[in-house]
Amino acid sequence: METDTTHDGNKIGRNITYMNEYFEQFISTNDSRPFFLYMAFHDTHRCNVPDVYGEFCEKFGDPSKSNGTIPDWTPDYYDPMKVALEPYIPDNSIARQDLANLYTVTGRLDQGVGLFMRTLEKYNLLDNTLIIYTSDNGIPFPGAKTNLYDHGMIEPFIISSPDSKQNWGKTSNALASTTDIVPTILDWFDVQYPNWSLFDTQVKLTGRSLLPALSNVDVTGFDHVFASHNLHEVTMYYPMRVIRTKDIRLIHNLNYFAPYPMALDIFDSPTFRKLLNDTHRGQSTGWIKSLKDYYYRAEFEMFNVTADPNELVNLAYNPMYSSVFGDLKARLNAWQNETNDIWRCEPRGVLVTDGTCISAENIFDN
């Protein structure tokens, strides 16, 4: 296959036939060494040319839409009025169509994964290859992507290990994080993490191997995860730190003085434009919260995600939950110190060169 140096984003990230050509080129080399291959889909991102290919590039590669052909893709389209809506998505015809388009490109991605799997099988690699499928954020809708509520933080996480075939198709309740991917891969290859330092500080992994959760889906100990967000684009600075247990989520909004900034792909989406215009007109939005509550957030937000899955009741300032709040806040702060988080003194302190925090009031007083 000739090398295409242009690498059009849609072609290399949405054309599953083209992607599989590169995939097969790599694994067909008859090289016996262990390999690591990272395949990145541009689906299910929103489209950079929606006027041509649709909001999610769902028309890209569909010959019935006169937009070329992806030979290994059979497009599926969904009735917007029949798609299942999560409460964090406004219930109106525009949002429903937006979601239906997302489902179409999700199907393309799914067929692409199946194509890669068949190629691995073709080269007799399924029985000795660890396969991890995940995503980097929630779907590009308000309340999900760039948020650290459940719908922004919960992502697909599927692992197929040939050493744990007895558990294929099963679900584990273990809480996992993308920080666990590197330890899992190193464990799979039986490679020790190197001893090295950055800025005179020893670097260590805070994640852990998920292989025990594959061999035993009822494994214990995976009872919490941490998460962080600083910005999506440089003008959208809104750092957040989170600890999530089986039942409780605590969010620390470090820049809560400012309104929450919107990622451009979400701000310009049909769903959000409808939400914004309905709010401006004083009309019902069909959403679970107001834009004012969405933009302006408390410094701490704590939710019982079991009893309150839509995360509407902030328990952080409820005296009945003060002990839970104090415990989670201490654990979150300890994690920030362990990871040398440069924002660990915010929002009322400043990190100085010796690693300690100085109150902002003391700085101004001096």
Describe what you observe in this structure:
With 366 residues, the chain is of the alpha+beta class. 31% of the residues lie in helices and 13% in strands. It has 12 helices and 10 strands. The strands form 4 sheets. A 4-stranded antiparallel sheet has the order 5-6-7-8, covered by helices on one side. A two-stranded antiparallel ribbon has the order 1-2. The longest helix is centred in the first third of the chain and has 30 residues. The chain is globular. The mean pLDDT is 92.
Task: Based on the model shown, name its key terms.
366 residues, alpha+beta, 12 helices, 31% helix
A few lines on this structure:
The chain is of the alpha+beta class and 366 residues long.
Radius of gyration equals 23 Å
Strand order of the largest sheet: 5-6-7-8
Helix count? 12
Largest sheet: 4 strands, antiparallel
Q: Which secondary-structure class do the elements indicate?
A: alpha+beta
Mean model confidence by pLDDT: 92
- How much helical structure, as a percent, in the residues? 25-40%
H/E element order? HHHHEHEHEEHEEEHHHEHEEH
* Total beta strand runs: 10
Strand content: 5-15%
Spans of at least 5 consecutive residues whose pLDDT stays below 50 are none
The coarse overall form would be globular
Distance between the termini: 67 Å
